[in-house]
From TrEMBL:
Pfam families linked to this entry: EamA
Keywords on record: Membrane, Transmembrane, Transmembrane helix
Keyword 4Fe-4S: no
Name listed for the protein in its UniProt record: EamA-like transporter family protein
Cleaved signal peptide residues: none
Similarity comment text for this entry: Belongs to the EamA transporter family.
Species of origin: Lapillicoccus jejuensis
Domain EamA: 6-140, 153-282
Membrane-spanning parts: 6-26, 33-57, 69-91, 98-117, 123-141, 153-171, 183-201, 213-231, 237-259, 266-283
Keyword Membrane among record annotations: yes
GO cellular component, one term: membrane
Amino acid sequence: MAPVSAVLALLCSLTWGTSDFLGGLLSRRLPAAAVVGASQVVGLVAMTVTLLVVAALGHPVPFDRWAEWAPYAVAAGATGSVALAAFYAGLSAGTMGVVAPIAATGAAVPVLLGVLTGDQPTTLAWAGMAIAVLGTILASGPELRGGVSARPVLLAVVAAVGFGTVLFLVARGSHVSTVATLWGMRLTSTTLYVVLALRLGTVGGTRAGDLRWLLPIGLGDLGANALFATASGLGMVSVVAVLASLYPVVTTLLARVLLHERLQRIQVVGVVVSLAGVAALSVA
């Protein structure tokens, strides 16, 4: 993989990890759907401004080729909305250092989808996916056997599948236009959450003081998607996806340092094994 692509993918992990930590933290006080919805609005505003600036610089969005990027953008927006809500809900209800690595195993999804569309993963790649699954089981075990509910683990699994699918969809749409794909993705997710909020009567659930949290969450998520889209255009999607999925390391470190979270020994083993699987995928 090109060094630039690898660096961008790792920066994506750093950005996603920080954004997810803040999102999970805010979700302990507000409903996860409210946090995701408000952060998506922030992302849509930022992406619309970016679209206008890019157009003013002489690079208009290829709306005439909408059929080539819009389906991926809409699918990514809808899938990402469900995945992000599940992830934030899981972070708010469980230990961040366990939920985040489980969600990271979604890196295997782009690899599998790549196989279905012609990619041929190496033996090491398949081994990496097996190791990641084993890590997921070990990291999930204490949650399932102990007094803690299995709900955070199940939410993390939903998030894993959703995140992996979104990575694949964004990469595909970005082959035509990164800006258009990300804008369409944010428009879709924002519309879904606004409609849901209106139906549930939860509009206005956030306060003005929450803006200092929502800005970095929304801009961070958008920035990470942009970094991933750019990186996937420079290197193999499967490798970029797993490097971008190393964000649990950042989330876990922030949780340890700022929240003083402690993991049980079996959970530590699970986290390490899970991340080892992701690392194996990244070099496959």
